[in-house]
Amino acid sequence: MGAARGGNSAAAPTPQHRPRFLCDTHLGKLGRRLRLLGFDTVLAQDITGGHPGGADAGDDALVRLARVEQRILLTRDRALLARPDLSQALEVPQAPVDTQLRGLLERLGLRHLASPFTRCTCCNTLIEPIDPARLPDLPPGVLARQDRFWRCPGCGRSYWEGSHHRRLQALVARLLHP
Fold first, then answer.
1. What is the pTM of this model?
2. Are strands 89-91 and 128-129 parallel, antiparallel or unpaired?
């Protein structure tokens, strides 16, 4: 993790303070990985909806949201980091996403605050257990192989512990227990 520019920084969280993040346009994959680990993370595309408005309008929206919601802005954009109206931001180095994430976890001391598989990786909402009878859109055979299901009340996405989940569990283990 590189240092923030313009005096902006993010302190290590206290045990009772769970940091909230905001990832700029180029860090969507990092943001989804943070969500996988249970961290409240908004992606730039969540707030802009891909609406063309120029870099300045997008930057203004990011700074405003970071300030209002007390989120740590993660970016590689040094001009954005230098903005005086941005109070918490970290520069993320150009690197593979898992290297970026390990650096962030280490720099902010976040490993003990992770709560994997509690947020929707698509929309950031906390997921909830659900009775499979309330999931009529499950792929064929899933009910026969699975008995625990979750649903995102935000976007309606369904989750279960299939083969993809096992791969993600291995990824989480590598990230949290290097």
1. 0.85
2. unpaired
3-state secondary structure of 46: helix
Q: Which domain holds residue 44?
A: 21-113
Distance of alpha carbon 77 from alpha carbon 32, whole angstroms = 19
Distance of CA 5 to the CA centre of its chain: 22
C-alpha to C-alpha distance for 160 and 74, rounded to whole angstroms? 30
Q: How far apart are CA 121 and CA 96, in angstroms?
A: 19
Q: Both 86 and 36 in a single domain?
A: yes
CA pair distance 171, 176, nearest whole angstrom: 9
Condensed to tens digits (0 to 9), the pLDDT of residues 108-148 reads: 999 999 999 999 999 999 999 999 989 888 887 898 899 89
Q: How many residues does the chain have?
A: 178
For residue 11, tell me if it sits in a domain: no
Answer whether residue 12 is part of any domain: no
